[in-house]
Fold this protein.
Amino acid sequence: MLPDLLHPIASCRVDREQTRLAIVLAFSGGVSGGLFSDALERASFAPSTWDPSLYVRDVFLPEFVARCFRIRIGHDDLALATAHLVKLLATPPADPAIIEYRRAILAELVRSPELCKELTGIYLTLRKFRARLENATGTARWDAQRRQLDILQLFKDLVDAMAVSHLARLRDFGLRIQAGEPYRSLSDLLAYDEHLATLDLKVRVGADGSIRGFQILSVQQNDANPFVPSVARRWLTKLELFVRGFRFSDQEVIARLIDAVFDGVQDEMVPLVQLLGDLEFYLGALGFRDIAQAAGLEVCLPELVAPHAPRRLQGLFNPLLFAQNIKVVACNLDIDRHDATVLVTGPNSGGKTRLLQGLALAQLLAQCGVFVPARSGCLALAPALVVSLIQETKVDQAEGRLGMELMRIRELFERLPPGAMVILDELCSGTNPSEGEEIFELVLRMLTRLRPQTLITTHFLAFAARLEKERKIAELRFLQVQLGPDQQPTYAFAPGVARTSLAGQAAARLGVTGDQLMSLIERNIALERASAGTPGR
């Protein structure tokens, strides 16, 4: 009975002993800063067949989490444990049952606003619990006791909230704790702190509204609480301690009561650390949905189909574009066979790379069990994902561009299992077209042996047109950027091979036509003559 919301078979994924020790030190006022984040960064997850080094950088996963996984309360975006979320999203579970478990919880949150509100309330209380535990305030002894009582009260509030939760796993955890003797002692101690006695007062108020005096009419002690002894018992206890030579103040007694109660519940506090991360996973996914809807887009939990089934995504978009404050245009992707290799052609700035990033994120998020950036669709689970979109030149690289490209291809085949999803940008662009096309075609033919689902962008338009015409590779499919009546990209895609890369239009847009460059040259000459005092012709 652990509050594990990520796996159907619950487990404590944080280091129990190390986290418990950190909680003990934090409760006593010792080292406490970063307790939750440190424990979450070391948390374990279910086994995964995916290698994050093959895709995290190229899909900008940390940036996606920071910008799209948000929990907003009012007008404020709460700070989340982003390192934990990135690690969680970067390692999709290999077990389909885990994916379905997460999808079921998320679907229930969508159907039930009441449940969503309930989990948000638990999450906010958890944040208060963490803040009080990690940030000791006050230096006086009574301030420390007040802080410890506040921590125990927040823990009780969390247990009580979970005991009535609509999620069975949280409810079972809360009810189990409530049924134990440590919880009853905790309740009695907090009731003692809250209700020692009831006083009837007679208050005298002056003409200016201020209190001029008061008189205690009666005092009714809360005798039902086991922590509240009778008056005679208190005096006899103090007399006995005095005779024995002990000098215990009331504050020292309450301190020992607090320690005793805390000892009984400290182990139950450990799973709350992972629960915070679990709630951020789901509430952050709902925040992603809200951001998409605010931009006029939709997300979905796609249908998970058999490996041999076609892949389809309607209204696919790239959520990384939200950061650029531009209107994001969705597109449709329809791949009729699971092992197709799709060549994507079209002009620069036409959306090819963004399409690949959006598709890679969709596959990753689908296999983590959360919303994908598409209105609807069906995807098959893949045993691995390989994304290569960013090619950087390194100062210490031993090879030129061709050598680096060949190494990129070699590394791909070294680490590529059968049936994986492969996403490549501008394959063989680092060499001359004739040699590049030869290597390109070799790669295409070798990939068919592994039967992956592959998308590759290329500017080898004549080469792609020849492959489309010859149809020698049965698995090949072709997509091109659709152009509008003004020959501008629409950011939609259609079957076929692009006829032009619109290099001339891109040059004009960026100021690289002959006239534009000549104008810059003449301007620089004029400036040089003016600075030298030479009159122009």
Observations:
- The two ends are 89 Å apart (CA to CA).
- Residues 16-195+253-291 form one domain.
